[in-house]
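Problem 12. The chain below contains 383 residues. Write out its predicted structure in token notation.
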Amino acid sequence: MMSARLLSLLLVTLLPACTSQASVQPCAQPGTWLAHDGEQVRAQLLQGLLAVLARQQVVLLGETHDSAEDHRWQLATLAQLHALRPDLAIGFEMFPRRLQPVLDRWVAGELSEAEFLRLTEWERVWGYDARLYLPLFHYARMNRLPMLALNVERSLIATVEAQGWEGVPEQRREGVSRPAPPSTGYLVQLREVFAHHPQKRGERQETAFARFVEAQTTWDRAMAQAIADYLAHRPQALVVGIVGAGHVRHGHGIAYQLKDLGVTRVANLLTWDARVPCSEYAVGLAQAVYVVQAPQDDPPRLGVAMEPAGAGVRIAQVNAGSVAEAAGLRPGDVITEAAGRSVHTPQDVRTTVQRLPPGTWLPLRVQRDGVALELIARFPPAP
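Solution.
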């Protein structure tokens, strides 16, 4: 059997070096693979790469949640791995473990799409456009592949961040064991994320950061533990994880916690924007990276996760660098109007956004801590 470290070494020996013009040239064209140091995998070696990946216990496919191209890559990679490892299960960050019975019913063919999305409380629990994920769900159902609910309730992560791990009673931890202390590299990565994180008034920064780290490692641990538990019952299986890229980069998140749980053969895979130069590629970002470029005609995206909120739509998460962040939207804001019309569901907001031509300014009416705000979301012009 091959360790993740040996996998990285193998990939390095297969590949040519980047050109000296990497600072101004893209790493590779869309549709090509890069190794852990940014060097391109030659076409004749691709099958060998896939064979190595298929011999792992776990392959994590890190995504940007609202990127259609990332989800297409996940589906294609999943199908290739499945052809090599028929005994395969798919783990999803999108579902807390209490929803496992619903996933089982979907795979068994008992539910329609509408019933599945309703019973999984998709809009409240996850909030991203379900159309991005449905091809993955249908692939699992067509092939009767187990779907694993990897996550825990959002309230558990929020409680850990507010009170610390020790402040959460054991009976409320949903069976999650104490996370392994994070690596130094992960602390650096989380410090950068924390710099953009809203902080409560009067809270000491170092205390807040320590709890933020505990919350993130609890999140990683929960998903790693769900995977490890499945492998304990089916040790010959391959688990493919559909998870956010932040849990995958540099192996600091889920893979790190899996190692602590005794699951050591883990491959971390990510996508890379073809327009970003090779000089910005960080060595060890993942064991392998697939180069993508989102089609220019993709619908515009606000860059948020949303959930119903009675008299509007609550923002659960704002993506870094998104239109929403530039507009000043924050987690916890409730959008009540978009383009002068009342909104009641996340789909209302998505439909409004997707109808916009490039370069449009979208007025939003938002409730924040009981105060009504008028914000403008400015969408970029067409390239």
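Discussion. Residues 1-25 have pLDDT under 50 and may be disordered. Students who got a different answer should revisit the alignment rule from Section 12.3.
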